[in-house]
Structures are given as C-alpha cells and as structure tokens.
Write a structure and sequence with these properties.
Blueprint: H1 5-22, H2 24-39, H3 44-62, H4 66-84, H5 91-117
Length: 121
C-alpha cells in the first residue's frame, strides 16, 4: 500500500515553497535596483517597481508567505501612486519605498527561517 496522499501533498508543497524562496535574494535585488533607478531620477522605474511589488504581493500569498504579500502590497501602493504622478519621487517617498523593500527582504528572511523549521514529513 502507498503512503498517505496528504503526506505526499504536504511534501510537494514544502518543496514548492522552498523553491520559491530559493530565488528570494534575486527578487529583493530586483527591487533594490529599481529603487536605485528611481532614486537616480528615472521616472519610469516607478511603474516597474510597482509591477515588481505586485508580482511579489500575489506570489507571496500563493506560496503561503502572507508577510511577503503584505510588505509587497505596501510597496505596490506607494510605487503606484508615484507612477500615477509621473514618477517624480520626493525624498520622503524614496525613504518609504526603501522601507518597503527592506520589509520585503525581512519577510523573506523570516519565511526562510520558518521553512527551515518545518518537519520534512
């Protein structure tokens, strides 16, 4: 007789979650690069930053990392407002966006820690 299908599903979900987190450093690097372009005055970067945050807001929840989604959604709203205002970022906007990027990075770090404590099944 084969093993419990629920155990197999749980194992597959753990593998998918681990795979998602494997790329988290690259995702955060992308946010940091886009933020730097915006800080350098490249107005189009606001829209690209909004899109990057949007992708993470959706995928974080889909993979079971709600804090990644929450932090990303905050950044998405801020970058979206800037994009709607033609991307002209003021120092306060840049600081708020940097805080969002740092929040996403911290959420990924926390997610990695919790994943490491999950039992292998």
């Amino acid at each position: 007789m084969t093993g419990d299908p629920n155990d197999a599903l749980a194992q597959q979900l753990r593998l998918l979650r681990r795979e998602y987190l494997t790329d988290s450093a690259q995702r955060v690097d992308e946010l940091r690069r886009l933020w730097a372009r915006l800080a350098a005055g490249e107005r189009a970067a606001a829209s690209e930053l909004r899109q990057a945050f949007h992708r993470l807001a959706g995928s974080g929840g889909s993979y079971g990392f709600p804090l990644v989604s929450t932090r990303s959604r905050e950044g998405e709203h801020l970058a979206g407002r800037l994009a709607a205002e033609d991307g002209a970022a003021q120092p306060g906007d840049l600081e708020s966006l940097r805080t969002c990027v740092d929040g996403v990075a911290a959420a990924f770090t926390d997610a990695l820690k919790t994943l490491d404590t999950e039992s292998p099944g």
